[in-house]
Design goal:
Keywords: Membrane, Transmembrane, Transmembrane helix. By secondary structure, the chain is an all-alpha fold. The chain has one domain. The protein has six helices and no strands. The protein is elongated, with a radius of gyration of 22 Å. It starts with a helix and ends in an 8-residue tail after the last helix. About 2% of the residues have low confidence.
Length: 217
C-alpha cells in the first residue's frame, strides 16, 4: 500500500468515525451520495427492463405457451385480494423505510465512507470471521445497527413480494404466467430464511458486543 493509499484509507475511516458519531462531514457533501444516485439509476433501469420483458411476454399469443387453464372464480377472487394486499404492503414498507432511512438504496452514511477493503473488514468482524478490533468498534457497531435496519426492511419487502407472487399465481389462468409466478414465489420464499439468518447473525453480534444498547428501530 502506497502512502497515498494509506492517507486515503485514514481519511475514509475518519469520515466513517464522524458519521458513526452523528457528526456532519468536515467539508463538502457526504461521500457515498454519488453511489446512491448510481444505485438508484441501476435499480430503475433494471425495473424498466423487467417491466418491458413482462409486457412483451403478455402481448404474445397465449396459444404459444400452452394456452390457459380453468381457475375457479373463488380462487381468482382470493388471489386478487392477496395480490393487492402484497402491493399495498410493499408501498407501505417502502414509504416507511424512506422516512426511517432503512432502504438499502439510501446508503449507510457510515459504510459509504469506507473503501471496499475496509467494508470487507467491517463485515468480517460482524460475521465473526475475524476478531474484533477495539479501536474500530464505533464504526463496526454503527454498521451493524444499520445492517439490522436494512435486513428488517428486506424481510418486510420480501413478505410483500411473496403475497404478490402468490396472489398472481392463484388468479391467473395463463400457463406461462403461472410458471413465471411459481418460480418467483419459490425464489422469494427461499430468500426469506436467508434474510432472517443474516438478521439474527447481526443481532447476535450486537447483543454480544453492546448487550445494554437499545434495539435498532
Amino acid at each position: 500500500m502506497t502512502d497515498s493509499d494509506e492517507a486515503d484509507a485514514a481519511r475514509r475511516w475518519a469520515a466513517a468515525e464522524r458519521a458513526a458519531a452523528g457528526l456532519p462531514p468536515e467539508t463538502g457533501p457526504a461521500p457515498g451520495r454519488g453511489q446512491a444516485w448510481v444505485l438508484t439509476a441501476v435499480v430503475v433501469l433494471a425495473a424498466g427492463v423487467f417491466a418491458g420483458f413482462v409486457a412483451f411476454v403478455l402481448l404474445l399469443p397465449q396459444s404459444l405457451f400452452g394456452g390457459a387453464v380453468a381457475v375457479p372464480g373463488w380462487l381468482q377472487t382470493t388471489g386478487l385480494i392477496i395480490e393487492w394486499a402484497g402491493i399495498l404492503l410493499g408501498i407501505f414498507v417502502w414509504v416507511r423505510a424512506g422516512r426511517t432511512g432503512e432502504r438499502p438504496i439510501s446508503m449507510n452514511l457510515v459504510v459509504a465512507q469506507l473503501s471496499f477493503t475496509q467494508k470487507r473488514r467491517v463485515a468480517n468482524q460482524i460475521k465473526g470471521r475475524e476478531p474484533a478490533h477495539p479501536e474500530e468498534m464505533r464504526v463496526v457497531i454503527a454498521a451493524a445497527r444499520q445492517a439490522v435496519a436494512v435486513q428488517r426492511f428486506s424481510l418486510r419487502l420480501l413478505l410483500a413480494y411473496v403475497l404478490f407472487a402468490l396472489g398472481n399465481l392463484m388468479w391467473t389462468d395463463w400457463v406461462l404466467a403461472r410458471i413465471l409466478y411459481a418460480i418467483a414465489l419459490a425464489v422469494f420464499v427461499v430468500a426469506v430464511p436467508l434474510s432472517l439468518k443474516k438478521l439474527r447473525r447481526v443481532e447476535d453480534f450486537l447483543q454480544n458486543t453492546v448487550p445494554d444498547a437499545p434495539p435498532a428501530p
